[in-house]
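Case 572 in the screening queue. Each case pairs one protein sequence with one candidate compound; here the compound is magnesium ion. For every case the pipeline is the same: read the inputs, emit a complex structure as tokens, and attach any notable structural observations.

Predict complex for case 572.
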Amino acid sequence: MKNSSSIKFFCKNVLRSVGAQTALMASAAILSELAEAAGPWLFGLILESFSSSGSVSGRLFLGLLGAWVVASLFPILYQALDTRVSPRVFKRVQEDLLDRLSRHSEAFFEKRSAGELGQYVRQAATAATTLHNILFFDVIRILVLLTITELLLFPKQPILAGMFLLWVLIYLALSFKISKSCLSKIYSQSALGARTMGRILDLLMNLDLVHVSQTGQAERASLRETLDQERTAQSDLRGYLTKMNLFQAASKLAISIGVSIFAFRQLQAGSLGLGDFVMFVQLSVLTALQVQNISNRLVEGSNQLGILAHALGTIPEVPSRQMAPPQKAHAGNAVVVSDVHFSYPNGRKVLCGLNLHIFKGQKVAIVGSSGSGKSTLFRLLADSYQAKSGRIEIFGRDIASLTHEELFKNVTIVPQTTRIFNRTMAENLIYGTRATEGEGRQMLSALGGDAILRKLPAGLQTPLGEQGSLLSGGERQRVALCRALLRRSPIILLDESLSALDAPSCEQVSNFLREHDPDCTCVMITHRLESLGDMDQIYYMSDGRIAESGTFAQLMARDGLFRQALNAGNNV
Ligand SMILES: Nc1ncnc2c1ncn2[C@@H]1O[C@H](COP(=O)(O)OP(=O)(O)OP(=O)(O)O)[C@@H](O)[C@H]1O
Ligand SMILES: [Mg+2]
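Case 572 output:
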């Protein structure tokens, strides 16, 4: 079942992209093998004619030389084609899997580290490339060689031909069975490899913490343990494969010696000419060698298929959504959340009957103590997670019926953790927008970010380092905000996006947000209660629901949670 989905993936994604070149490669493999099999046949004919007439035709000899030339050169032609095709297969599979990954929501990444998934993508690409080679080189070659051997052998020695074919079939069936039983070892090795890669990346990304905490030694010891497990799995697998190679070598030797003795007896009895004797022995040795090769390649192929299936199972396709019929939108509603309940996959209950009604163009703040579920609400609005019950509407349409394309055309979210690529400032500013670099610079300037550009050695063209390490926290937030505003979506969700700005900068940016587009609905999570005087509405979250709502003046007029929090020093 698993394998059938990877075979489908292989045919659809790999073969379609390199079909024409693959046909050329297959032709080169067929020709080279025809020539290789023609060698013993022509050699047999030469000996036959020499022993019967004492002379050899020059044509036969030329044919033999020609066969040798083709048999030697065509595999090189195959390789030359392959140097173009394999990288394309590799690239195509990586692109497709990265595309799959990019469609998954946050919930998917909760249990899998980025490094681990990246390793699966690489493993799948390598597996597909190897499979492509096995199918269009090794399998084709053995099929051609076996067919020719049988065609030459059968008219003269039908029993020998039948026994030989039987041996090949038994040999391949046994090899296939052995390869299936080592599949679980392959899975565990590939899973361990991916896990190790995930751990290494996680460690590298947190090296500063390791350094400060002085835990380098403990981390090294724990990593060594993971590497040891991987090594044990590797040697386990190698040991298994060595046993299999032993069986193959013994079996190959048995058939080669068996056919040679049989043919020798026939030669002694006079029922076989010298030429046929040489041809049979050479062909059977050659075919047995190729059968051994192909059995190794088949084992490798089925392993690679297993690895591909494992990677595809780990990175499944995101099912496309059932589109609901368009509903009549209420012109004034931007975001409506009705009685939403939500728990995280680990069972942690976070939202319990949340209701919100945000009108188009409103500037709204969501506040509440740490852990009260504010960011969780945004994750639901970005469809990273789905509510257990209740309903969320964006411009009158149920979020569950929107495609991500539709959703993100309407909604832009700036998450609590600022995302910056290790690319240039310009690329980061206009990432995911249709804006030009000039517009990016203008927006940054409007957000008070001129000073940031002046400090960067190559201005807009300066790469910002891993996660924007060249910038301060507040500068990173300005870049993320600039990028979000340039998307010009009608709804913008800001999760503590101004938290690292100093008070005057925060006020400047807040004023800009309020005034730059009256139609834009802006929902802002913040802990700075004192700065919310101009908000159209403030929602105070507590225990997974809205405990209080109103304008700043209304909330201050009540002796409720908001006023108490503000008087206590803003620290909600
Ligand atoms: N992926 C997750 N799995 C399980 N629990 C989670 C997950 N993410 C958050 N939580 C829990 O859900 C609760 C709400 O988290 P959330 O991030 O929504 O809080 P918040 O109101 O945004 O807090 P803060 O103001 O500190 O950012 C927290 O108790 C948190 O521990
Ligand atoms: Mg939060």
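Case 572 observations:
- The pocket of magnesium ion (ligand 2) is lined by residues 374-375, 416, 495 (CB under 6 Å).
- Residues 333-567 form a domain with the Rossmann fold fold (CATH 3.40.50.300).
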